[in-house]
Amino acid sequence: MQKITPVSANFSVSPQIGPEDMPAVVAAGFRSIISNRPDGEEPGQPDAATLARVAQSHGLIFEHLPVTNPDIAPTDARAMQAALARLPKPVLAFCRSGGRSTAMHAAALALGSDAAATYDVVIVGGGSAGIACAASLLKRQADLSIAIIEPSDVHYYQPGWTLVGAGVFQPRATRRAMAEVMPRKARWIRQAVRAFQPDSNSVTLADGTAIAYHALVVAPGLKLDWGAIPGLSETIGRNGVTSNYRYDLAPYTHELVRKMAQGRALFTQPPMPIKCAGAPQKAMYLSCHDWEQRGLLEGIEVEFHSAGPVLFGVADYVPALMTYIERYGIDFRPGSKLVGVDGDARIARFEQGGDGEKTVVERPFDMLHVVPPQVAPDFVAASPIADESGFVAVDPATLRHPIWPNLFALGDVIAASNAKTAAAARKQAPVVAVNVIAALDGKNPVAGYDGYGSCPLTVERGRIVLAEFGYGGKLLPSFPNWLLDGRKPTRLAWFLKDRMLPPIYWHGMLKGREWLAGPSPIGQTP
């Protein structure tokens, strides 16, 4: 390992490092690496792509900002400043000797704290909605300055967790490093947002830094409120209590299903809104199909406790789902809300009853699949941009805020009646992109969102009821009925979910490719 020279409390430099040096870099306490050396300066020099792969395998964030001499151009200084602002600290930078890295650091500091702190567009959230919107914006106007504020260093493909719970996908197939999915031309600020100041066109970060914008896009998703159910946090992940709504718990779902040979399995659904309203049922149907295939279903009592009054909110899909409720012998209990869990005793408590008198019923279980209540993130709910629900107020068609014309929102955080699904975000991202660009030009929104959402209801391994609908429950199928009737369980829908949707997500949606998702004028559909 080459000599490391500290420059400041959180920044050091060194001569060229190689893949073999990564363990030593980690051992020295560094969390990020910046390469300031262009590839190919001398024979045998390891290229940046190779170093990035090895660095990421050791849990390091790697950024390549090559410069050719110590006379640092303003654009390079701004890029260095942005990298130092967003990368996890401490940071190790290198070039051939360390000199250019030292010069880059000095040039970044010389810009001052206010330089590069105002962006054309600031996006809050690096989930599917935020990344897709950034990609769609850059696809249309590549010279936009965009900052994405996201504290997490991992990006998840959450729709895949249902299939992880069924043993179809491996967990690792549903996650990637955030650095891999972040659009290259966007600046990643790896912090959380503390507050919004829409009157002054700025947001405040957790460390107190103010970031200014010309347009703001809010897309941080929602909050899974595990603590809202007494006893759940203490037992989740053990005592037979699981949930496909968490990356680390979906494999436990599969483990419980495979080990269970008899007893009682409870599946729950909280009050709306929740992300992917069909996911609570998907876990249940796939579990039942597994038990059925192994000849165990008759010895297992299955109960579905839903806080809502109906099986599914769009009536056209209910007949197909009821066929599977009957086939699997599921005891469907509408109006039954999970209000407590005693994991050690394996007792679940449900509040039941209508608007009048409510009672609490205890149900013993051998397996309990829980879907937690879901609310707006605290920093959103407490902000001026939220409505009475705590979610961001938007016009349901344009996704623009009703008070601030340069503020837009999309994804699970919006206060609209659409289904909260990745498919909805995929349709919303181009709409917001088009309307943000219009706002930057001082114009009114031109693109409209029709409430589209998709919920592939996995009723058995190999068949899916593909629910596609918009505002008011209007059916919005992507394919003609002769090819794929979403009201019936089909193998083609399973093929889409299993084989097609993951690559469409990673290589299409997150890259600004808008297959079957292009924006339409307000009031029209494609």
From TrEMBL:
NCBIfam families: TIGR01244 family sulfur transferase
Signal peptide positions (record): none
GO molecular function: transferase activity
Keywords on record: Transferase
Segments forming a coiled coil: none
Beta-lactamase hydrolase-like protein phosphatase-like domain ranges (all copies): 7-110
Source lineage: Bacteria, Pseudomonadati, Pseudomonadota, Alphaproteobacteria, Sphingomonadales
Source superkingdom: Bacteria
Domain FAD/NAD(P)-binding: 119-239
InterPro entries with a match to the protein in the record: BLH_phosphatase-like, FAD/NAD-bd_sf, FAD/NAD-binding_dom, Prot-tyrosine_phosphatase-like, Sulphide_quinone_reductase
Record organism: Novosphingobium album
Name assigned to this protein: TIGR01244 family sulfur transferase
